[in-house]
């Protein structure tokens, strides 16, 4: 199983980024997917999840209304569109399938 994140970077407050996580080694269309984040000195925070059917999503209160998770089965990729970014969104963002984790992609809002 491999999960490879991309799309992180440095952005000003109020800006946008789209994170991507491309998967391999398992049946992506049958898998629930999600994103965690961890800021320095903080615990991991569950940011968002999406069910295998894409019918059910979850968002942390801290990102609700600003972030959108989508799942593209044909591309074996899960996306996290992040709008109106705030400094408190600065963290290392990890993709997961509830059993495996990627290496993370850094998002810095400054």
Can you describe what's shown?
By secondary structure, the protein is mostly beta strands. It has no helices and ten strands. The strands form two sheets. A six-stranded mixed beta sheet has the order 2-10-9-4-5-6, with no helix packed on it. A four-stranded antiparallel beta sheet has the order 1-3-8-7, with no helix packed on it. β7 and β8 (77-82) form a beta hairpin. 31% of the residues are buried. The model has no long low-confidence stretch (mean pLDDT 96).
Q: Can you summarize this structure?
A:
The protein has 110 residues and is mainly β. It is 0% helix and 49% strand. It has strands at residues 2-6, 9-11, 17-24, 33-38, 45-50, 57-59, 67-72, 77-82, 91-96, 105-109.
The number of strands is 10
Q: Helix fraction?
A: under 10%
How are strands sequenced across the largest beta sheet? 2-10-9-4-5-6
Structural class assignment: mainly beta
The fraction of residues assigned to DSSP E strands is: over 45%
Q: What is the averaged pLDDT score?
A: 96
End-to-end Cα distance: 34 Å
**Oligomeric state of the chains present here:** single chain
Radius of gyration: 13 Å
Order of helices and strands: EEEEEEEEEE
- Shape, please? globular
Number of helices: 0
Biggest β-sheet strands, sense, barrel: 6 strands, mixed
Spans of at least 5 consecutive residues with low confidence: none
């Amino acid at each position: 199983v491999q999960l490879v994140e991309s799309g992180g970077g440095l952005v000003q407050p109020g800006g946008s980024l789209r994170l991507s996580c491309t998967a391999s080694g398992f049946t992506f269309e049958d898998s629930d997917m999600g994103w965690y984040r961890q800021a320095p000195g903080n615990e991991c925070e569950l940011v968002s999840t999406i069910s295998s059917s894409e019918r059910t999503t979850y968002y942390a209160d801290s990102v609700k209304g600003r972030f959108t998770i989508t799942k593209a089965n044909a591309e074996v990729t899960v996306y996290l569109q992040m709008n109106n970014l705030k400094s408190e969104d600065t963290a290392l963002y990890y993709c997961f399938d509830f059993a495996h984790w990627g290496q993370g992609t850094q998002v810095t809002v400054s």
